[in-house]
Amino acid sequence: MTSPRTSIIMPVYNTANSVVTAIESVLKQTDLDFELLIINDHSPDNADEVIKKYLEITPDNRIRYITNHKNLGLAATRNRGMKIARGQWLAFIDSDDAYKPSFLETLHASATDDIDIVACGLETVYEDGTRKPRPGKLKGSFTGREAMIALMRDELTPYACNKIFRKSAVGSQEFPLINRVEDAGFSIAVYKTARYVKEIEDRLYLYTVNPLSITWGSTPPITEMNRFMDYLKDTTGAHEGDEEEQNALAVSWVLTYLNGAQSALRLNPETSGSYLGECRKALRFPIIQRAIKSGSMYGVAAVLLKVSPWIYRKVYGLYIKRTYGL
Known about the structure:
Blueprint: E1 6-12, H1 19-27, E2 34-40, H2 47-57, E3 63-67, H3 74-84, E4 89-92, E5 98-99, H4 103-109, E6 115-125, E7 131-133, E8 140-143, H5 144-152, E9 163-166, H6 167-170, H7 182-193, E10 196-208, H8 214-217, H9 222-236, H10 243-267, H11 272-282, H12 285-293, H13 297-307, H14 309-324
Parallel strand pairs: 1-2, 1-4, 2-3, 6-10
Antiparallel strand pairs: 4-9, 5-10, 6-7, 6-9, 8-10
Helix pairs in contact: 5-7, 5-10, 7-9, 9-10, 10-11, 10-12, 10-13, 12-13, 13-14
């Protein structure tokens, strides 16, 4: 059997209302050389019925439909998909999002022989159907080390869904089983060993903002954020690296706990007081100083959170409204 150029992995969980749109966005690709692995992660809604009905009406031998016998979570489901993928390249799509038709064609056109990962820009899609460009990041070609450092500094996109990965460059690397940071963890790890990474301007991935999703509707446990920082140390070795790597790791540290604090400020759970206290405690001044030394504004934001959570809440509220409309 001839291997497809790209294996596209689509985990499905609680997205019965959007999964067909996601599937159709893959089938509308101008690059036809792909396989689509739809993996139902034991979804509690009627996604299984919806998918089976769609595939019965619209059969396509490029699609494989797989079901998990129990809920594994996003990272483990993607890992299962990578194990059975036959393609030379890997791509990922969330089942409440969509590709633009030229996603695969455009990204592959940018993948020269020594480029192992290509990433594109994104558009945010709101509940009323309106779209807005996602905030931009650096564009161009980077060595794997440069990309790893830039991603830890939040200067490149952390998402897996707006990229294609050369399968041989991914090797045995898997998504870490750490809630909400699996994308960044996977990308940073693959960047470390990649030859070159390229980020292009074209916004070809449609990212849906759902206030009830894990990203927007929950607060990450402190233990998960701690595990993520341990994972970054083990994966990158940046804590024992040169000053540039140590400063980049400091930025990632600051951003991780800022994101946790921001979710608590946005959602205001009953435990928000103690949770914010833990986040502020984790933002130690030596780490903040390294982040500021690297030129990152996140270091300044961390100082503001440490000094006055009330002012920080106001500033963050204005930012989230302007950037994401929430």
